[in-house]
Design brief:
Layout: H1 5-12, H2 30-35, H3 39-56, E1 95-100, H4 101-106, H5 112-119, E2 124-125, E3 136-138, E4 141-142, E5 147-151, E6 154-155, E7 172-179, H6 183-186, E8 193-199, E9 207-215, E10 220-231, E11 234-245, E12 254-266, E13 271-283, E14 290-291, E15 312-329, E16 332-356, E17 361-389, E18 392-411, E19 418-421, E20 438-457, E21 462-479, E22 487-490, E23 493-505, E24 508-519, H7 529-532, E25 537-550, E26 555-572, E27 580-598, E28 603-618, E29 620-622, E30 631-633, E31 645-656, E32 659-668, E33 671-672, E34 680-681, E35 684-696, E36 699-706, E37 714-719, E38 722-725, E39 730-738
Parallel strand pairs: 5-8
Antiparallel strand pairs: 1-7, 2-3, 3-4, 5-6, 7-8, 9-10, 9-39, 10-11, 11-12, 12-13, 13-15, 14-38, 15-16, 16-17, 17-18, 17-19, 18-20, 20-21, 21-22, 21-23, 23-24, 24-25, 25-26, 26-27, 27-28, 28-31, 29-30, 31-32, 32-35, 33-34, 35-36, 36-39, 37-38
Length: 739
């Protein structure tokens, strides 16, 4: 991870004025590709591109002009998350953002959740220990079933609502974020958006760095990153980090380790292999939220942890990939990714706490013990063809994605056990459940998909882009407790997207797109027998926007407006005695804007804002009992954990030679903890700040403070009356050394 303060010191040693530099753009212009011909020229170009790409993580081309070197200004860089066509953000008819490793290091964002919510437009956190801690809300849709997480473009299918990898940013080259439906790229389960963590690639120039840090919660962190050539055809990269913490609530010791290792082999001038392995081992927070007392947050119990003393949570992940890229001929490229993933998870804790006004006690229930074992093996291949169609420049990519998933679930259902403790002074007790932990079910899924995308440059200014994906998963579930609940179900989903990009002048793009998406009801590999009988929920989005890079690359701005409608939600049938039907509807519409400016005298400003109106259009819920149902129509209400406005503002100032400071403000609007919208979680504004000093060219010392004004706030609701509170004011001292 490169320390951004080095660039600050370079720009402040003389005049304090930021000078533009020439960098390599990320995409080769179509005309340059057409002009190159012959095996020799192709080999030379291939060699140059791979050598630089291996050290930067992206394909490159000859420089086309001065571009400002700021880690947050990247509209002209390519992304793989919004399209497989190798398009820049300006060329993509969708809302795509890139969060660089330099940005994350500069702002002290050491986990994926902070990096996304503090930088990306319109994203908030809905993570908790029950869902793996990596869950988001955006564009009116919340949870890992609607906002997908990926690693190097590959998704880990969600088992029982849980995603827990990747989690640490030290092993990441960048994080790419796609706002809006992503099913045409990655299949069902991405109606709100997708977050793609891109791992660090091997380096062809030797590079080593290490970092240590300590914060006021006694979080100890050590990290090492090393890369370089082994020979003229082989390079490596190893990044590893470990953390231990006392936590910010009582009795909440945590620890984790993340390891990423990769080797790149240039078999020939046209064939490159990249082999990587990742391992994660987490013992995360066992804090499941703070119960409300008489419907209000009570500051006196802000740091109380109502879990039992012997609670346990552990996530173990292994992720292995073999990537191949073959430049078959001029204008023809084959790419293949073969992967195997393995995850083990264990929860043993008490999860639900509620204040009992009659006794003045906190009642604790849901004594959970759950085991997950999940394996996923798959292969993804695509081929890109660059040429002409009816005399117009055309790029076409097509491929397939196949995988096999095995998911085992054991638990102590029906999760009995009950205890009461004093809200302020209590003995946490131990885990004591009357229910034995035993195998619950085993689910296997065989999934295959075909996808294609095309970009037709109608003129120099106008391009048309279209994509389609067909998914065909088959899921089989074996229920060990009630064989009658076993099933085999075939699903089918077709997702597509059409869009246009108009560039009247260089680096100014207007775009529009229409896309569709699909979501499962209850999760593809963990849906119950009842939910498996229903079809996939479907969605559609219309989006228009404008993007511009200006001022010689020292500024950029984006503006987007959208509407998303999701159909086929499950909703009870009033008067049916509990039967449900798939007629519910949820929608959202909004406006999002961002701006980035690299100013003189060492200043840089980045800001974004999202306004939306999310609501249920048709949604009933039973608020009574199964024997005495009371149905309420929540049409017009806001979905749970969905804020109506979100914004981030960051200011960076290199105020003296080798010194810099930055501050960020994150503003999140009010959210609701229940579908009736009677339990309101207040809006909040957080301020984070840091100061960096470079005593020499290879050393950076950082002092960071998160939640500077010690704001008490809720990030999401675990239950109606149990809210997940955010971290209090925390200071950290970090030292980063290159060698």
């Amino acid at each position: 991870m490169l320390c951004p303060s080095e660039s600050w010191s370079q720009t402040t040693q003389s005049s304090q004025t930021l000078d533009p530099v020439v960098i390599q753009p990320s995409a080769t212009p179509q005309r340059a590709r057409r002009a190159a011909s012959g095996n020799a020229s192709r080999a030379a170009r291939s060699r140059q591109q791979r050598n630089v790409a291996a050290s930067t993580g992206a394909p490159v081309a000859p420089p086309t002009g001065p571009v400002f070197a700021a880690p947050t200004l990247n509209l002209t860089g390519t992304t793989s998350t919004g399209s497989r066509l190798g398009l820049t953000r300006l060329q993509t008819p969708a809302s795509v953002e890139v969060i660089s490793a330099e940005t994350m290091a500069e702002r002290g964002q050491q986990n994926v959740l902070d990096a996304v919510t503090q930088n990306a437009t319109g994203f908030t956190a809905t993570g908790d220990p029950g869902n793996g801690g990596i869950a988001f809300s955006t564009r009116g849709f919340a949870g890992s079933g609607s906002v997908m997480s990926l690693y190097d473009g590959t998704r880990l299918y969600i088992g029982a609502g849980t995603v827990n990898f990747p989690f640490d940013t030290w092993t990441a080259e960048k994080i790419e974020v796609l706002r809006g439906p992503a099913s045409v790229m990655y299949g069902e389960g991405a109606i709100g958006g997708a977050i793609n963590v891109v791992s660090k690639l091997p380096l062809w120039v030797q590079f080593n760095q290490a970092e240590i840090s300590l914060d006021s919660n006694m979080t100890r962190r050590i990290a090492v990153d090393s890369g370089g050539p082994v020979s003229k055809d082989v390079a490596y990269r190893i990044a590893v980090t470990g953390n231990m913490s006392d936590g910010w609530v009582d009795r909440d010791n945590t620890s984790n380790i993340a390891l990423h290792a990769a080797v790149q082999i240039k078999q020939t001038e046209d064939v490159t292999w990249t082999i990587s392995t990742d391992y994660g081992d987490r013992r995360p927070s066992r804090y499941f939220g703070t119960p409300l007392i008489n419907g209000q947050l009570n500051e006196a119990i802000r740091f109380k942890n109502y879990n039992v003393s012997d609670s346990q949570i552990r996530y173990q992940d292994s992720w292995n990939q073999v990537k191949t890229e073959w430049q078959v001929a001029d204008g023809i490229t084959l790419r293949n990714t073969l992967y195997y993933m393995y995850a083990k998870r264990h929860w043993k804790e008490v999860e639900t706490y509620g204040y009992n006004a009659g006794t003045g006690q906190i009642d604790r229930s849901d004594y959970f013990e759950i085991f997950h074992t999940q394996q996923q093996a798959g292969d993804r291949m695509d081929a890109t063809f660059e040429g002409h169609l009816l005399g117009m420049v055309n790029t076409f990519v097509a491929g397939f994605d196949v995988n096999k998933i095995d998911f085992k679930h054991a638990n102590n259902s029906p999760y009995g056990g009950f205890s009461s403790v004093d809200p302020y002074n209590f003995n946490p007790g131990i885990f004591d459940s009357p229910d034995a932990t035993r195998p619950g079910y085993n689910a296997t899924a065989n999934q295959y998909a075909f996808f294609a995308e095309n970009r037709l440059a109608v003129t120099e200014q106008l391009s048309l882009i279209a994509g389609v994906r067909q998914d065909q998963p088959t899921v089989s579930r074996t229920d060990f407790r009630n064989p009658a609940n076993s099933y085999t179900r075939d699903y089918s989903a077709t997702s597509w997207r059409v869009g246009a990009v108009y560039t009247p002048i260089q680096n100014l793009a207007f775009y529009g797109q229409y896309s569709t998406a699909a979501d499962t009801v209850g999760g593809l590999i963990s849906a119950s027998n009842a939910n498996a009988k229903f079809d996939l929920a479907t969605g559609k989005q219309a989006e228009i926007g404008v993007k511009q890079s200006f001022w010689g690359g020292r500024g950029e701005w984006t503006l987007a407006a959208y509407e998303i409608v999701k159909n086929n939600l499950l909703t009870p049938i009033p008067g049916s005695g509990g039967a449900v039907q798939q007629v519910g509807q949820q929608s959202s519409r909004g406006v999002e804007a961002s701006i980035g400016l690299a100013l003189d005298h060492g200043w840089r400003i980045d800001a974004n804002i999202a306004f939306l109106r999310a609501k249920y259009d048709n949604f009933f819920q039973n608020i009574g009992t199964s024997t005495d149902p009371i149905y309420v129509n929540y049409a017009g209400n806001v979905p749970i954990n969905v804020p109506q406005n979100v914004s981030n503002i960051w200011a960076t100032w290199a105020f003296a030679a080798n010194w810099s400071a930055n501050a960020g403000v994150q503003v999140v609007g009010r959210t609701f903890a229940d579908n009736a919208n009677t339990l309101e979680m207040p809006s909040y504004a957080l301020v984070n700040a840091s100061l960096q000093w470079k005593p020499d060219v290879n050393t950076t010392v950082s002092l960071r403070v998160w939640n500077l004004f010690d704001k008490i706030y809720a990030t999401s609701s675990y239950t109606d009356n149990q809210w997940m509170l955010g971290m209090p004011r925390t200071a950290q001292l970090a030292v980063n050394v290159k060698f």
